[in-house]
Every structure is written in C-alpha cells, then in structure tokens.
Amino acid sequence: MPLWEISSICYLSEEQQDKLAQAVTSLHSEKFNVPTLLVNVTFTNVATTNAYVAGKRSRANLNMIKGWLRSGPSRTKDDYDDLNASLARAWEEIVGSEGVHKLGGIFMVGGVLSARESGFLVPAAGGYPGWIKENYVHLKQRADAGEELMVEFLHELRTRECFRDLLAEAEG
Questions:
Q1: Which of 22, 57, 61, 111 can pair with 104 through a Cys bridge, CB separation 3.0 to 4.6 Å?
Q2: How far apart are the C-alpha atoms of 102 and 23, rounded to whole Å?
Q3: Which residues pair with 56 in a beta bridge?
Q4: Which residue has the higher pLDDT, 58 or 11?
C-alpha cells in the first residue's frame, strides 16, 4: 500500500519506467514517512484503449498517474496537493510535456479499507509505528531466512532517520 498505476499512450522505455517508479516511491515514502517496501507501482500501455472525454472519443488524457491510497487525519489535502505537484514535475522531467508525452491527469483516491503487503495486513494511515513493533519478530525471521525484500526493509528502517528510533524500540 499504496498502489500507483501509471498508464500511458506513449511508449515508456524501461529506463523511463524505472525512473518514474523510483520517483513515485521516493516522493510518496518521504511525504508520508512510509517504508518504500510498501509502495507499489505498475505500468500499463493504453495505446489501443478507447477513451472518452465529454462523451467523445479522445486520446488527449490517456497519460495518467493514479494512486489508491489510505487517508487519515495525519494527511491533509495540502499534503496530497504537494505530492500531486511533485509527481507532475517528475513526469515532465522523465517523460516530457509535449504532444503524446503530455500528462493528462493525476488522480489520488483515498479510503482503501484493507490491504495486505508481503503477507502482512497494512495498518491505517499513520499506523506504521505500532505495526513495525507488532510485526518486528516476523519481519526479522523472514530477513534472517534470506528473503531479500525483508532484508532491504529492515535495512531501510535502520538507515532512515524517521524509522531509526522506532526500530530500536522494536528490537529492544
């Protein structure tokens, strides 16, 4: 959680997809202090998709970034608007803004009721401190067993300032 879907009418190279996925992950993670392991990004080429605007067939708005997110009292409309602007800048820097490369829209939908990531139920927005403490033993077991995503996840918790104290408490 979150799930970001990037759809495009234009061809996105693997390098562009990698850069967009890294930008979305970084921007979301930093804005909401979410571990990067929990940020998912998918890409769909919609070049053959029929789309309509005002009831008329249109190809103008098919480059889109859509996010299914959790909302909560710790996340304001200004937070989402700031993330929206940052995502638009990232698209323009990586893909461009002319012709078929122009971004048609960014949509963030809140209110995800439940989510499961890597076998764990995901907490409500802002609930990561308790979730990390509650699941630390299982996360560590999986990391110790060599599960690469869990090894990376614990490394991130140890190295990112916003998670360091929390991990120390969980390990304590």
A1: 61
A2: 17
A3: 53
A4: 11
Q: Which amino acid is at 157?
A: L
- Give residue-wise pLDDT tens across range 95-115: 999 999 999 999 999 888 888
Average pLDDT, the chain: 92
Distance CA 58, CA 157 (A): 45
Which pair of tokens denotes residue 169?
Answer: 């408490």
**C-alpha–C-alpha distance, residues 57 and 139, integer Å:** 49
Query: What's the pLDDT at 34?
Result: 87
DSSP-derived letter for residue 40 is E
CA-to-CA distance for 6 and 44, rounded, in angstroms? 6
Cα gap 40→36, rounded to integer Å: 9
CA-CA-CA-CA dihedral for 97, 102, 105, 106, to nearest 10: -50
Please name every residue paired with 42 in a beta bridge, in sequence order, or none if there are none: 5
Separation in Å, CA 170 to CA 9, 20, 46, 66, 135 = 45, 33, 44, 34, 9
